[in-house]
Amino acid sequence: MKKRLLSASISALLMGLAGAPSWADEEVSAWRLFVADHDKPVVNVFDALDGDRLASFKLHGPANLNRSESGATVFATQGSAGVVSTIASGIAFHDHGDHADIDIDDATLLKRELLGNQPGHFFERQGKIAQWFDGEDSAKILAESAVLADNKDVTKVNVVAPHHGVAVPFDNYAVVSIPNPDDGSKRPIGARVVDLDGKKVGDDALCPGLHGSATSGDIVALSCETGLLLINQKGGAPVIKPLPYAKSLPAGSTSTLIGGKGMQYFIGNYGPDRIILVDPTEADSFRLIQLPTRRVHFAVDPIRSKFAYVFTEDGKLHQIDVLKGAITQSLRLTDPYSMDGHWNDPRPRIAVADNKIFVTDPLNSKIAVVDAVSFKKTAEINVDGQPFNIVAVGGSGKVHGDGHGHDAHHHESKVQ
Questions:
Q1: Of 147, 218, 232, 363, whose CA is between 20 and 30 Å from 386?
Q2: Domains in the chain and their CATH numbers?
Q3: Gene3D superfamilies attached here (predicted)?
């Protein structure tokens, strides 16, 4: 049986429940950080609540990390090695309608790997995963549940020709990028709905320079040089609708896109020292925010929905109020990290877990911990090597016990 990894507060609570003669409950949290090294084929796992290292996994190459919506799995894309490894986070939620149960186990490196030429964009939607391979003419689609069960079922969807693109999975369809017919090394020129046999459905949507994808609520967005493509599904095949950039915007475009949690919006880059907020439901959908220096990384807060965070090259973390469309607080965390040099040089990355913001500081082998409420640095986590990509998994809820033999390991929970 796998060892249960509970924080000290949870363990103490369960000991108390064992001797409790009457019903009791208490709010608990379980959060983990998965941190990939910039140069080494290693992913370290930390308890986000106390900073303790829980595990270390050796991979085939340096990895870019993506977590699933459920948080049950973390995917480590190793482009140089042609491998996508899968890690079971050890934190799983089970929906029971009026509540959810949580299971907390060891994080484990699974045997299940996706192999292919130049693995690239990862996209997951409602438990279905689409893994893109830049060097192949098909994308691989599979279910998260199949990965956890070590089921080898994979659907390959033809994408015409190898190119740097993306696939978005839907129930019985996928939206895939269309390669540039003149030069496959250039960015895609549009998006196409196909069934799982790769057959085209409906008309293609133009999207010159397609790069960047995200989900917020029930909308998937793809970014183009001319605006966004908004994809929605209501009953049948996905429907693509263009959202052109406003004529009032200066010249520019978005190539990295993140979707808001709890509120429906998107945030993207728009030039080196600006970001753009997109509300797809408003007539005036776009708002620009000027940054003090060039942008390094940005992330949304999945818990405090109106906030996003941007790290800039002067070593500062900025809190963005999405409703106001403005920077509301700034905090210096590190020495400057210039954006001159190679795009993949080791630079800070942001993740949010519970009431904390975590910012990797790869050149100083540590992770800065910021209280999300006070917006002040409260701690550091020392990490061997160069901590780079980081994702957070976890949730909070209640542990129940009634003194009558009920399983106190069941928690009424919410996942973030």
A1: 147
A2: 8-415 (2.130.10.10)
A3: YVTN repeat-like/Quinoprotein amine dehydrogenase
